[in-house]
Amino acid sequence: MTHSSDPQVCVVIPTYNRADLLRRQLTELTRQRLAPERFEVVVADDGSSDHTAEVVRSFSGRLRIGYHFQEDLGFRAAAARNGGARMATAPLLVFLDTGVLIGPDFLAEHLAEHQGEEQGGEDGPAGGRGSRGDRLVLGYTYGYNPYQPFPGLAEALAAAEPEEVVRAHGHEPGFQDLRARELAGFGEDLDLGRLAAPWMAVWALNMSLPTEAFHAVGGFDEDYRSWGGEDLEFGYRVHRHGMPIALSRRAWAVESPHERDLDANRASNCANAWRLWERHPEPVMELYGAMYSRNHYDPPLEYEYRRLLEWTEKARGTDVREEVAALVARPLPDGRRPARVVVLGAGGAHGGLPGGPSYTLVDFDERLLADVPAADGAATVHAVGLRTVLESGSADLVVLTSRLRGLWERWSGDLLAEAGRLGGTVRVAFGENPGDAGDATGAAAAAAAADGGRP
């Protein structure tokens, strides 16, 4: 196929041993109303041993198509996507997983979402949607529900084009995008800026963003070598980079059913849950790790994170210096005075604390920690306390303050387990006998956490 102009869109398709699904997908790309010279395709092969390469070559006369191959060293979808993106010459990237089928307006709609165009033919009249700027667009994806597949979807897609299947079943709840429940009420084109954690909606199976922006945030994290989490981690960096995230119903696709090892994927997703926290040790990732490492998805992270943000505002005026001072002043069970004290829920506690120990102040309110004078000599850690960057056994005394009261019913087990990991003696400044919570060794605190998380 000869090329007379520079493409505007590059479609990157990561794949592994799904040649027949890929053939159908590439066929759908030949039906695009967007002129073929306006887009390119890169198939990013994660080491397939089937006839994937032959399928790609068979489309060389119908598509502007490239092929990136990497050795099969296990699951490396992140590296495959990055390799495909490096081959792009177009200013806009569209990521599309193998087997995600599209209608004839798919690429024109993704392009319009970034150019402010109304889709309408080869050139597309400009200005219909207004200037959008750099943003990550998530295409609404029907049919993606591995654990409860839509009945008859494979047969429907085998008998009809994707747009016909959408016309027939798009109104049925079991066929709709799984994200729709959380995003209900956000309008036709869903501006996720009103969500506390919009990155949780980022699925790489159908999404687009400017090529320069993709490289500016660092692409996908290639340390992800098993299924689950790399697209959310990418979305989090996009969000932190200040780029808006939107869900477009116009740039829709249909995820076709295919064989999956659901048990292995679930286990891998759990194992990868704390990796996001390791990359970004922040309060929201503590919640994510604690929930997803246990397959706890209901209520969703958006709900739990909003609760944390609301409690952060409510607890901002709670001064815990007196309760911390009272518990630090008491000798340890062996009669010694604590030399290393970690305070979970410290707020802006400084001044008025007993002299002698070195203090590490841990709190979920970054604003209060920023007010702790450097001259105090206390280390500060921005965390809830479900998991911290502190080393095991780094404390003689761990104090959990009343600033944690609003989080206690939901997270006491995790808080006590982390306090127990930090070691020494654990004291809780509230409960049935506030100010006289009693002592527990780190091991006892961890045992209490395992037994229901009560002090």
From TrEMBL:
Which residue intervals define the domain Galactosyltransferase C-terminal in the entry?
A: 200-245
Record's keyword terms, sorted: Glycosyltransferase, Transferase
Q: Pathway it belongs to?
A: Cell wall biogenesis; cell wall polysaccharide biosynthesis
- Domain Glycosyltransferase 2-like, by residue range, is 10-125
Q: Which GO terms describe its molecular function?
A: glycosyltransferase activity
* Pfam families (alphabetical): Glyco_transf_7C, Glycos_transf_2
The family annotation for this protein states: Belongs to the glycosyltransferase 2 family.
UniProt cross-references to PANTHER family, sorted A to Z: GALACTOFURANOSYLTRANSFERASE GLFT2, RHAMNOSYLTRANSFERASE WBBL
In its UniProt entry, what is this protein called? Glycosyltransferase
